[in-house]
Write a structure and sequence with these properties.
heterodimer; A: 136 residues; alpha+beta; 4 helices; 32% strand; B: 140 residues; five-stranded mixed beta sheet; 28% helix; elongated
């Protein structure tokens, strides 16, 4: 079993707001992130897949194919977008880094034919990242 | 849904690796330059990983402000810009980064309960890093 990680970047804007909370609660819980005009980040995404090395090709996964899947399923939908307003998952869910990692996992799950999705890591900042392993 | 959240912090400290139970020449051969009598310092990078269910109301594993406060108050205030050998945590052990990783993990385990503490990762230099998960195996 070999683990392979592919890295890519996207930039997006978002804000944190729960309509069930009062304005004061939103401000207290989410701080600066609650500003309804939003703000943005340069996100870094690392997707790790695992599998046995194909004896013929020497690959766990065809990187070109993985790159195409990432572009089609994730980057086209998220890059240079407003997450709250343009990405269906976040019309009713807060686009925290946790929820973003889960949404990206769900977008990729089932799209890989050979290798198995192992981990989605999303860096919101160089000093803050979330890992999701598909656990309930 | 269970997610893992990692936050990175910086602090600077000095130390000298020296074991009272070893002779001078044994200390020298074991620790090399790290045994120089007046010590030396590092810029440490600390990564703290916590895990838990993502709260459906907030979208968060835990409130980042609470995690930052715990790490700042209990770890950074204690170890930033100090000589580790002079700290009581190292009265009986050598302040290697292995031992420092364990000490920091145990401090955070005591003071932060808002999410499960998975592990700490400590970079002593850009070339060395150490991870401690309370004795558990590390997750890839």
């Amino acid at each position: 079993m070999v683990y392979l990680t592919r890295k890519c970047e996207f930039s997006a804007s978002h804000y944190y707001h729960n309509p069930e909370f009062s304005a004061e609660e939103n401000q207290r819980i989410f701080g600066k992130c609650a500003n309804l005009n939003g703000h943005g980040h340069n996100y870094t995404l690392e997707v790790t897949v695992k599998g046995d090395v194909d004896p013929k090709t020497g690959f766990v996964v065809d990187l070109k194919e993985l790159k195409e899947i990432l572009s089609r399923e994730v980057l086209d939908a998220l890059d240079h977008r407003h997450l709250n307003k343009e990405v269906p998952e976040f019309l009713r869910q807060i686009p925290t880094t946790e929820n973003l990692a889960i949404a990206i996992w769900n977008r990729l799950q089932g799209k890989l034919h050979v290798a198995k999705l192992h981990r989605v890591r999303v860096y919101e900042l160089p000093d803050l990242f979330v890992d999701f392993y598909g656990e309930a | 849904m269970k997610a893992h959240l990692t936050r990175r912090y910086l602090f600077s400290a000095s130390h000298r690796l020296h074991c009272d139970g070893l002779s001078e020449s044994e200390n020298q051969s074991t620790y090399g330059k790290c045994n120089n009598p007046h010590g030396h310092g590092h810029n440490y990078a600390l990564e703290v990983t916590v895990s838990g269910q993502v709260n459906p109301q907030t979208g968060m594993v835990c409130n980042l402000v609470e995690l930052d406060d715990a790490v700042r108050n209990e770890v950074l205030e204690r170890f930033d810009h100090v000589n580790l050998n002079a700290r009581r945590e190292f009265a009986a052990t050598v302040p290697t980064t292995e031992n420092l990783s364990e000490v920091i993990f145990n401090i955070l385990k005591q003071c932060f309960a808002a999410a499960h503490l998975e592990k700490v990762r400590l970079e002593e230099t850009m070339m060395n890093s150490f991870e401690y998960a309370g004795g558990a195996e590390l997750r890839v």
